[in-house]
Amino acid sequence: MVEEKLKILLLEDSKIQAMFILKLLEEAGNNNFETTHVITLAASLKAIKDHDFDIILLDLNVPDSESLNTLHTVRPVASDSVIIILSADDNEELALEAVKSGAQDYLVKGKFDANLLKRSIYYGIERAESVRKIYFYAYHDILTELPNRALFMDRLNNFCRDCDRYGNKIALHMIDVDNFKFINDTYGHKYGDELLKVVAARLLQVARKTDTVARLGGDEFVIIQTHLSNAMQASVVAERIVESLSAPYVLFDKMVHSESSVGIAYYPDDTADIGELMQRADVALYSAKTGGKKRFQFYSKEAGDEIARYHYIDDQLRKNINEDEFFLLYQPQYDIQTREMIGMEALVRWNNKESGLIFPDEFIPVAEKTGLILELGTQIFKLVCDDIYSWKAQGLEPVKVAVNVSAIQLNDPTLPQKFEKIMKSYGIDVSQIDLEITETEILDYKNDECFATLTKLHEMGFSLALDDFGVGYASLNYLHKIPCSKIKIDRSFVMEIDENNDAREIIRAIILLSKALGKKLVAEGVETESHLKFLKELDCDFAQGYLLSKPVSVEDISKMLKEQKKEHVLFVAHTGH
User: Fold this and answer.
1) Which residues are paired to 11 by β-bridges?
2) Taking the model in full, what pTM does it have?
3) Distances from the Cα of 135 to the Cαs of 127, 131, 151, 209, in angstroms?
4) By the 8 A CB rule, do 93 and 118 touch?
5) Are 445 and 416 in contact (CB under 8 A)?
6) Yes or no: is domain 149-299 CATH 3.40.190.10?
7) Which listed CATH number (3.40.30.10, 3.40.190.10, 2.40.240.20, 3.20.20.450) goes with 321-574?
8) Beta-carbon contacts of residue 311 (< 8 Å; ≥ 6 apart)
9) Where are the alpha helices (H) located in 461-517, listed in sequence order?
């Protein structure tokens, strides 16, 4: 293989000095140097414009320039070249200033030979390469080699200025790898890092050469799409991003699946402020993720209001989670055949001192996303145990209480010990409590930790119920592995009984499947007599819904338990049993 020659530009106005240096270069280069000689600064600038030079040997004092002005003129137009000063002035201060101004070395004419010139050239190349690497990694992500946040912000500022000047538009695509944490935690950082590198490579393929792809940190990437005339152009790229990042990944010896969400803010239509542009792209990303993942979303005012509400709930949760603001309602569950209350579901509510009643569909997702669900879930369990203890103290035999447990709680291996300690403090038996987890949640968190905690709770004697069954598309094999004794039919199917034959057939199939697996059935959302009649005909076990009882306070449920106890006593006295 023939080694490519180093291209050298020599700026020297003295013919004698030039001949001497050219001779030294010939001797030092051993035919590896290709040298161009010019005698004026103007000629050197033209040569640099026409050719790429590896090395520039620069005489500071030439007919049309002198001293450091020569270097200051050449350096900006030859940013990738190694510059070595050749000066007749043996001046240490000048030499130091030259190096500070971008020269790699400073040689005094008449005091160097071919060997010293050669060393200076190759030392300059090594030093320039080191500087380039330092500069590169100051502005690029080490793992993916994409521009980092600093370079991204610099380019975003420049692109926005161009938009203001020429009337262009840009789209800011904020991209999040939806289940990166799961892959990283399950398989290790080696696989997580490899996933990020593949994501970066795919984004580079999707983006145009004029666009900027950057990694802001963690699993957050961004694309600046430039020179747009309408939002449709941004949606085309966003679709490609989602499609590309949803394809399977081969990471070393494993094939894994990951999806991505994209939030898009449009400059200057959404905002002409760069800080707000970033925030609004984040808002759009959050909206995309909460809307179902594997999708893209443009910024909208509604999405902005949603994220503002999210942050408000988060702030209030952090401030008040240890206050006595959370309370329970209970919705009774009934035996469909006898209409006897056989259980109840505990439903948490939040009476916030600042904004009043907040429902769980608002604060539970925030608590889960922030990890506060671990603390809140423990509080709810304590409230349930406190009420069961109160009922026992009143001489009531409480029916089973179902407590909702987040899949995030199940990823806490200490959860069984926490529950056991709380029950012991109240003297409550495990048989008095059911634990409910939704099918969709457990499908999202189907990992070893989750299943280990479920198994431990089952071994402790807890009855486990799979909530909202039918909407998560669990496989039969997967359902068989979950140690649950009850299945709750999702209310969306029950509500459609009167109008939708498909819903009736789905319910029929769920009941047959559950009976075959030996699991009890609870139908949610029973609101009409026709709902109840249909479920009764199919031999569904239990039901809850507004037809039978709405969620009621602990005081009201206590009255209902007392009334049921009285009716039971009268029944026994009347029948003699």
Assistant:
1) 38, 58
2) 0.61
3) 12, 6, 11, 22
4) no
5) no
6) no
7) 3.20.20.450
8) none
9) 476-481, 491-494, 501-516
DSSP secondary-structure letter at 235? H
CA-based diameter of the chain, in Å? Answer: 131
Give the pair of three-digit tokens for residue 198.
């593949």
- Measured CA to CA in angstroms, residue 534 lies from 494, 500, 528, 530 at distances of 10, 13, 10, 6
Cβ partners under 8 Å of residue 577, min gap 6? none
Structure tokens at 196: 């990020």
Q: What is the rounded CA–CA span in Å between residue 414 and residue 426?
A: 19
For the chain, where do the domains classified as CATH 3.40.50.2300 start and end?
A: 6-139
Note down pLDDT in tens along the chain; length 577 residues. 445 789 999 999 999 999 999 999 988 877 789 999 999 999 999 999 999 999 999 999 999 999 999 999 999 999 889 999 998 888 888 988 998 888 999 999 988 999 999 999 999 888 888 878 888 888 899 999 999 999 999 999 999 998 998 888 999 999 999 878 888 888 889 999 999 999 999 999 999 888 999 999 889 999 999 988 887 889 999 999 999 999 999 999 888 888 899 999 999 999 999 999 999 999 899 888 877 778 899 998 887 787 788 889 999 999 999 888 999 999 999 999 988 999 999 999 999 999 899 999 899 988 988 889 999 999 999 999 999 999 999 988 778 999 999 888 988 889 999 999 999 999 999 999 999 988 666 655 555 678 888 889 999 999 999 887 766 544 455 566 678 889 898 888 899 998 889 889 989 988 998 888 888 999 999 999 999 999 999 999 999 999 999 999 999 999 999 888 776 544 444 444 4
Contacts of 445 (CB under 8 A, 6+ apart): 407, 408, 410, 411
Within 10 angstroms of residue 208's Cβ, the number of other Cβ atoms is 11
DSSP state of 466: E
Task: Sort 286 into a burial class: Cβ within 10 Å, 0-12 / 13-18 / 19+.
Answer: buried
Start and end residues for every CATH 3.20.20.450 domain found in the chain: 321-574
CATH topology for the 6-139 domain: Rossmann fold (3.40.50)
